[in-house]
Amino acid sequence: xxxxxxxxxxxxxxxxxxxxxxxxxxxxxxSASDRPTMDGQRGxxxxxxxxxxxxxxxxxxxxxxxxxxxxxxPYNPGHLMVCPFRHVxxxxxxxxxxxxxxxxxxxxxxxxxxxxxxTQGFNVGMNQGRTGGxxxxxxxxxxxxxxxxxxxxxxxIIGQTKxxxxxxxxxxxxxxxxWDA
Length: 181
Fold this sequence. Notes:
By secondary structure, the chain is of the alpha+beta class. The chain is 26% helix and 14% strand.
């Protein structure tokens, strides 16, 4: 019988890291490669058309080649994503115009969030490919996650729950109104 209290010693010399065992995540890891690929725009939640209602689709700004949308499953209030309108999966495949507008919209998104909510920092980035951690790897999207001192706590780690102090609809309203202000 293994004494799990001594599990750190099973692999040799302790490395100084604490471990948080999350076996419930294995179901996601195992099923991630089973999700069918989204070919073209069929079924892709990030493919938007001019007819799509901004509020219903959480779009806060439409540019020429890219748009900005609230993340439906935010890490923090105001979590934005900048996406090209075109269904393309890799940063290396976007055009110069898409790349430039994505960068400009990222800067504007950071400015809007700082002005609205006193954001103290950001996580900005993209996960590329299924193996790189992209939940929707077929459609490129760059995350803008506002951060504040103390915004992380035990709830997501222990309780598998994220406490968000503002409803998505209210965040959409505030960010949309502030975008062109």
